[in-house]
Amino acid sequence: MPFARLNRIGNREGSMTQIHGEVAEGFGAVADAFADNFDDHGEVGAAFCLYVGGASVVDVWGGMADPATGRPWEQDALQLHFSTTKGVAAICAAILHERGQLDYDSPVADYWPEFAAGGKATVTVAQCMCHQAGLAAVDTPLTLDEICDKEPVLRALEIQEPLWEPGTANGYHAITYGWIVGEIVKRIDGRPIGRFLADEMAGPLGVDSFIGLPESEEHRVTRIIPAPVITDPPTIELIAAMLGPGSLGYRALTMDGAMLAGQEYDPSVPLQIDAFNTRQVHAAEIPGAAGISEARALARMYGACVSEVDGIRLISDETVRTVRAERSRGPDKSLVVECAWGMGFMRHLDTNPMLTGESFGHPGAGGSLAFGDLDHQVGFGYVMNQMGNGVAGDPRANALIEAVRSCL
């Protein structure tokens, strides 16, 4: 497929953002949308990659990795992408399901016996993966050090009683989801989920995606930039009601404040991310919120879920149809808004758009997004360092989706 190599300064008079990369013939509108995001939506540094039919058709990057130091966003930059990691963890589980090692409808305790405590003997893998297990938070007090150690979190999850009757409602397990899925993977396979990701997905596909970043790669990580302060009083009031201390949203998204790393909660800055710029969190295994990847890694992994990529297919069409099928929907106990889930993957919604109603993937806080689409054989990966004020549906990702749709 013919490629045009990019090395240009912006796309509008007065724009000084440098965009680099390669774009296949017929996909120029996607590169334009990526460049427009810097001019129209306050993009600072970002990367985007698109696979179609097993081939890379867009791979672009630009802007600043760290405006404070002037470090540019290089081709090999790595970005922490928050809950977009949940989709990566879900692919790991789907591989085990395809191999006949994981039954989604079996109790978690079949794989992790200690999980049965606290009245959870019948809680299924599916209920955990579609956020219906009632384990969005734990009652055991935990520090950031204990969270990064992981083992204290697992012990807390083992003894935790469900916060609501499992299977009766969905409530976003914003961070606990990852440790539950990660431990299921480890109990079945023997490898921590970060090692499984490296050995079974990232390594074979020749890309860099980490759950638990080696210190040798720390220099490649871009610096996350906080979202703009919210000044609209009604919006601040709404956010305080949804995510204020004591709410399930606060408990789920901050682990009862532990992930704030000493910051005082401020509803005008709902996404407080200081801890996520630290080596401590980068090194930790937090499969629900702290994956660190290249955009091309996310696109290539999803691409290999829906088509063959250089001879590699991660899961079959049948497994894709299983994991993308809707398993829960409704007003979310944590996020309040309507949410819909497959097997660890968020479903397409107006508040969380993807390519089609059958796309499967996950957004990340602040704007990142990765998904696959079997019908169009698309793998989509977008990461950025400038946080937006939301947990789903960012205008920059939406613009890229519209451009992709126009090119297919």
Over all CA atoms, what is the radius of gyration?
20 Å
Please provide the ordered H/E string of secondary-structure elements.
Answer: EEHEEEEHHHHHHEHHHEHHEEEEEEH
Strand content: 15-25%
Number of strands: 14
Detail the poorly predicted runs: 8-13
Count of separate DSSP helical elements: 13
User: What's the mean pLDDT score?
Assistant: 93
Q: How would you describe the shape?
A: globular
Attribute tags:
32% helix; alpha+beta; 408 residues; 17% strand; 9-stranded antiparallel beta sheet; 13 helices
What does this molecule look like?
By secondary structure, the chain is α+β, with helices and mostly antiparallel strands. It contains 13 helices and 14 strands. The strands form three sheets. Strands 1, 2, 3, 4, 5, 11, 12, 13 and 14 form a nine-stranded antiparallel sheet that branches. A three-stranded antiparallel sheet has the order 6-8-7. A two-stranded antiparallel sheet has the order 9-10. Strand 3 (45-52) and strand 4 form a beta hairpin. It is globular and about 60 Å long. 52% of the residues are buried. Mean pLDDT is 93; it is low at 8-13.
Tell me briefly what this model is:
By secondary structure, the chain is an alpha+beta fold. Helices cover 32% and strands 17% of the residues.
Topology:
Elements lengths: L2 E7 L8 E7 L3 H13 L4 E8 L2 E12 L4 E2 L6 E2 L3 H15 L26 H5 L14 H6 L1 H9 L16 H14 L3 H13 L3 E2 L22 H11 L4 H7 L24 H5 L8 E2 L1 H12 L10 H8 L3 E4 L6 E4 L4 E2 L12 E4 L5 E5 L4 E7 L10 H13 L1
Helix pairs in contact: 1-13, 2-6
